[in-house]
């Protein structure tokens, strides 16, 4: 989660370190997969069976590590007897990626978070000669520490399995694997003498663990049930096994110095500093206790934890420690920072101090994630991190927000600029979104660029994307996608980093942000083209998703227009205008949006809540998780500390949360005009907080299966609201 108003901080904020034990890292260059070639092949065969059913038999796969003589992943595909395709690659990941490339570009197939299009030609299109897919990047990294909470927190094994398949197909070979660590922390602290009460006041609830691990937040949403620990541990075993079966390195957690307050009871002499609360929280839930790295206890706790990690999880020697995310370190003394060389708190220093930190670490002991490189690359202003290896990462999404967004031009050029940078220490590319399951096109593009030698022709690339996403070529859909790439997906202005700023998903006031980074005309044209193509394609999951998502974006844009009318009418004291605009928004547009979203399985609040509740072993736990899940996407803290940061546009949430707020706002304005009173934001805030809180605790059940016909709702919405876009275009 990133909040930054001061750009000096921003610049460095996005650096985090991956740390590997030095001696091991030196050997990592020569390290070979633990999983044998044979078992990696088997992993790919199983993946293909999950993906393609019995058509997977049309592929012959083989992993042969000697295929690569420079340790860079490669896959070679050729036609074999009986119309089969033979794929030989240097690792399981390489073979999966090679096959996905063939599926995309020879079979027009597509795999995504929002559905697959796997209408495989029969027989498979033959290859003449050898199709060679290779990468110049040693690492293809995936996940942000926040993804763990915003997207993966409630996942069961089938969902994880699907994600790891997606990762393999998209070439990922280095990924965070942070699941299940709390049980190990619990064991460490209990063994040191803390009691359960103290631990219950330390861990947050599941939906907030990412910030607990970073030292931002404690206790909120907790206590963490013992059943959680057990389930997560078993999940982690499966995740690790599966990742390693493809020869994908799981990045494991390490000690960063954050300790429970109880440590000060047990070790009164220990050098522990209490930090100021984070973000808008007060000390009740947010005051980290940080152990000085030079204190012998630091080594002791670090070693206890690492021993448990290795015993339970095994290790591939790459760890991530992420302290002080957005927190000012207790000391900015470079010696202090260098002494905890595995600590990313350097992110808070000015550049010359970053230099001091990075110079304190022997080269090769550290890989740096340049976390938001598509918008704020740090490597270029630090001489490639003063010689430390780094991974160029695309962050793209904050808080798992809904909303179409992309910076396609910088994604398409950034990685190649980073390679060409003088004396570049680039060792890989990465995907580091705070939340996933949105804008699949951007992630497919970024993953693919890791396997390319030069930027793609975006216009051509996106037309092929449309072809494989829907399985057929249609000039109107090609045009629609080109318009999308030209508008919403072509953000070039830094201030719009993809945090959904739309009034729709924020607490209403008279001063909301209404500007956008693209030309609405282009976007509305795309909407029209997509809508017109719908009758023939409505049976395709991928198409239905896009129809909902684009229509959703159109209604989001129109909400801004109605908001402006409401505000102007209020300020001009025109009651009839206020009633008209407010009436359309509250009584028609938002209810239609809710119906639209409710008609698609990918946009349901009920799914998120059901996944959360199903993690509980009894009613009490189910309720705890339900509240956690709701709080994260709305108030984000007991009192709206980070209100609406992780907003979503989902069926159920629009009606019971956003719509209620807008209703109250419009009513309040009407009342003010009626009685000739000014609108008082602080009074409104108090009232609306009750609405927000009411949603979090309402215990209502929401649809977890879609309701209604997407095409019908989209059609009604289009016919009703498209004319408004024309009116506004005049
Ligand atoms: C493959 O699976 C499909 C459906 O899953 C089935 O209809 C077909 O008969 C199977 N073909 C073979 C050769 O097993
Ligand atoms: C792997 O490839 C090498 C040549 O690159 C070949 O000599 C060897 O036989 C292959 N191994 C297997 C198991 O196919
Ligand atoms: C391996 O290296 C040799 C010599 O550098 C080169 O000719 C050959 O093409 C390489 N093979 C592969 C599979 O990269
Ligand atoms: C990742 O890919 C690189 C090069 O492409 C390869 O050397 C390495 O073995 C792969 N796996 C891991 C876990 O690094
Ligand atoms: C845990 O320790 C604290 C501090 O000593 C104490 O107040 C509390 O009663 C203890 N709780 C349990 C369950 O032992
Ligand atoms: C505790 O650590 C701080 C810096 O974190 C340092 O300034 C101080 O000297 C240390 N105190 C002791 C007693 O070691
Ligand atoms: C801190 O926040 C909590 C939760 O909102 C609240 O209950 C408490 O009163 C606040 N404490 C202070 C000192 O403001
Ligand atoms: C790799 O294999 C060795 C020997 O089979 C085993 O001892 C080690 O634990 C394995 N490492 C991992 C990370 O699984
Ligand atoms: C690149 O490294 C070389 C050798 O260390 C050095 O001479 C040269 O100045 C560096 N170039 C840049 C642009 O930093
Ligand atoms: C990019 O591809 C389009 C076809 O989609 C083509 O018209 C255009 O000329 C290409 N641009 C470049 C710079 O090659
Ligand atoms: C594209 O849209 C135009 C205008 O609506 C229509 O005439 C044409 O038939 C459409 N093309 C296809 C392939 O559907
Ligand atoms: C994105 O916008 C820039 C200028 O604003 C333009 O040069 C570029 O062609 C656009 N890219 C696409 C894909 O439309």
**What is the β-strand count?**
17
In CATH, the architecture of the largest domain is Alpha-Beta Barrel
Total domain count? 3
Give the C-alpha Rg.
Answer: 26 Å
Ligand list: 2-acetamido-2-deoxy-beta-D-glucopyranose
> Could you say what the CATH topology of the largest domain is called?
TIM Barrel
What is the mean predicted local confidence, pLDDT? 90
In DSSP terms, counting alpha (H) and pi (I) runs of 4 or more, how many helices? Answer: 27
- Roughly what fraction of the amino acids lie in strands? 5-15%
Give the end-to-end Cα distance, rounded to a whole number of Å.
40 Å
Description:
The chain has 730 residues and is an alpha/beta fold. The protein folds into three domains: 25-33 and 138-484, Glycosidases (TIM Barrel, Alpha-Beta Barrel), CATH 3.20.20; 37-69 and 73-134, Chitobiase/beta-hexosaminidase domain 2-like (Chitobiase, domain 2); 500-728, Four Helix Bundle (Hemerythrin (Met), subunit A) (Up-down Bundle). Helix content is 48%, strand content 10%. The chain is built from 27 helices and 17 strands. Helix 6 packs parallel to helix 10 (226-245), helix 18 (458-470) crosses helix 19 (475-486) and helix 22 runs antiparallel to helix 25 (653-675). The longest helix has 31 residues, at 541-571. It is globular and about 80 Å long. It starts with 6 loop residues before the first helix and ends with a helix. The model is unreliable at 1-15, 21-31 and 323-352 (pLDDT under 50). It binds 2-acetamido-2-deoxy-beta-D-glucopyranose (NAG) (12 copies). One 2-acetamido-2-deoxy-beta-D-glucopyranose is lined by residues 422-423.
